[in-house]
UniProtKB/TrEMBL annotation:
Record-linked PROSITE patterns: ALDEHYDE_DEHYDR_GLU
UniProt EC number: 1.2.1.3
Entry similarity comment: Belongs to the aldehyde dehydrogenase family.
Annotated protein name in UniProt: aldehyde dehydrogenase (NAD(+))
Record flagged with keyword NAD: yes
Length: 501
């Protein structure tokens, strides 16, 4: 695989604009520092918002299908550079290359979706109660949209937000995780290539990139000229963003912690369930919001499934994420490793039997944090299972009745994703029904992770309630105006009120 400076040069990035002394960027692959960047000051963030605001004032008047053309060009850039951008993701976030490429594909998919959407920003026409009147809804962009993204999906989640926000007529200010700024720099360069090809209809400043830490995020969140903040990350971060936005009555789209479960029912196809469990629990080294963290297995099949699961965990290829044979890459950093070890210790204290979970030796990766994914068998859903630990730990608990399993699924504070493996129609439909899973995503015979962009993505409770990506999530990036038009020669009042002068 090519080095980071070489890869970035391939995107046309001029690194001298970004280099500095403030932010050392480490690759989780080896732990080495591969770039040191300067951070934006809060004043520079303010200036970027000013530029984004003036860009918005022009961009909102460009017809939406023409705005879609910019996103089409951006999608083309992503198609051309898919391999290289996937490699940057792998270098910087430590995802295996297949997942790095999958992330870029997710960006391409949302671009395609957004291009179609640019001709479908529909409002309703509503029957008026008054003669000679018509009611309708018009959708307008909100203005500058602030996007705060996390290290684990360093580019796709920005693209979900930006592609929709831009076709809706907004401008975007992006504050990526300080753990993955280089991926953001590469993506921004590709976007600017699309802008250059699009021509002068795209005002400069339409998409802004902020490099920095929580101080930059705070400056973005506090700015009254940013009516909407879409933030992905920890529940702790989301609470701070929500509080700051509530203070000034700004809107938020929050995609926070997940603590996702799977129920494996007596009738489940165990071969499929096994594949679903392993991909969802150890993919991205357990660092997806949608990662499977809690597994509820029916008593009658527990002893058939667990040995197979352990056998599969015992032979997982762990190592360099750019090696095509690897399925489990490194954790993002030392802190993630320590949090994993602390969670495992707590699980032991709560009566858990831990399988795996130790540090894995990887030749050349001594400075990285590679682990054997952990399986923890517990007699009941204990306190640690109510927490999201961003690492490959799968807690396993037996259950006796579907009702009990659904109650366990719903007992945690988070509500992002959930799934059931069953071939029993009654069980599947109950799980999806009003008395079933309380999550934003509920799947049957599919694990909780790896959602397609076509559906609305997000979850309930401490996950934050936001919806991004497909379906009608675009409405979150627009404001709705209700219009009543009177084409008669009189002025009847609603509710039959008489008000004669
Ligand atoms: C996240 O983990 O923040 O459904 C997003 C999935 C991916 C997106 C995950 N499409 O797992």
């Amino acid at each position: 695989m090519q080095s980071i400076p070489h890869l970035l040069a391939g995107f046309g990035v001029d690194m001298t604009t970004y280099q500095g002394q403030d932010l050392p960027c480490r690759t989780p692959v080896t732990g080495a520092v591969h770039a040191t960047l300067r951070m934006d000051t809060p004043q520079q963030v303010t200036q970027k918002i000013t530029d984004a605001r003036s860009a918005f004032e022009r961009w909102r008047t460009v017809p939406a299908p023409r705005r879609g053309e910019l996103i089409r060009l951006f999608g083309d850039e992503l198609r051309t550079h898919k391999q290289a951008l996937g490699q940057v993701v792998t270098h910087e976030a430590g995802k295996i290359l297949q997942e790095g490429l999958g992330e870029v594909q997710e960006m391409i998919d949302i671009c395609d979706f957004a291009v179609g959407l640019s001709r479908q920003l529909y409002g309703l026409t509503i029957a008026s109660e008054r003669p000679g009147h018509r009611m309708m809804e018009t959708w307008h962009p909100v203005g500058v949209v602030g996007v705060i993204s996390a290290f684990n999906f360093p580019v796709a989640v920005w693209a979900w937000n930006a592609a929709l926000a831009l076709v809706c007529g907004n401008s975007v200010v992006w504050k990526p995780s300080e753990k993955t700024p280089l991926t953001a720099i590469a993506t921004h360069a590709l976007f600017m290539n699309a802008v250059a090809r699009f021509g002068s209809d795209a005002p400069p400043g339409l998409a802004q990139l902020v490099i920095g830490d929580a101080r930059c995020g705070a400056a973005l969140v506090a700015d009254k000229r940013v009516p909407l903040i879409s933030a992905t990350g920890s529940t702790r971060m989301g609470r701070a963003v929500a509080a700051a936005c509530a203070q000034r009555l700004a809107r938020t789209i929050l995609e926070l912690g997940g603590n996702n479960a799977m129920i494996v029912a007596p009738s489940a196809d165990l071969d499929m369930a096994l594949r679903g469990i392993v991909f969802s629990a150890v993919g991205t080294a357990g660092q997806r919001c949608t990662t499977l963290r809690r597994l509820f297995v029916h008593d009658s099949i527990y002893d058939a499934l667990l040995p197979r699961l352990k056998a599969s965990y015992g032979t997982l290829p762990i190592g360099d994420p750019s090696d095509p044979a690897t399925l489990v890459g490194p954790l993002i950093d030392a802190q993630a490793f320590e949090a994993m070890q602390a969670a495992l210790q707590q699980a032991r204290d709560e009566g858990g039997a831990v399988f795996g979970g130790t540090r894995a030796e990887v030749a050349g990766g001594e400075g990285g944090h590679y682990v054997h994914p952990a399986l923890v068998e517990l007699p009941a859903q204990s306190a640690i299972m109510h927490h999201e630990t961003f690492a490959p730990i799968l807690y396993v608990v037996r259950y006796q009745s579907l009702e009990q399993a659904i109650a366990l699924n719903n007992a945690v504070p988070q509500g992002l994703s959930s799934s059931i493996f069953t071939t029993d129609l009654r069980e599947a439909e109950t799980f999806l029904s009003v008395v079933g899973s309380d999550c934003g995503i509920a799947n049957v015979n599919i694990g909780p992770s790896g959602a397609e962009i076509g559906g609305a993505f997000g979850g309930e409770k401490e996950t934050g309630g936001g919806r991004e990506s497909g379906s009608d999530a675009w409405k979150g990036y627009m404001r709705r105006a209700t219009n009543t038009i009177n084409y008669s020669h009189s002025l009847p009042l609603a509710q039959g009120i008489s008000f004669d002068l």
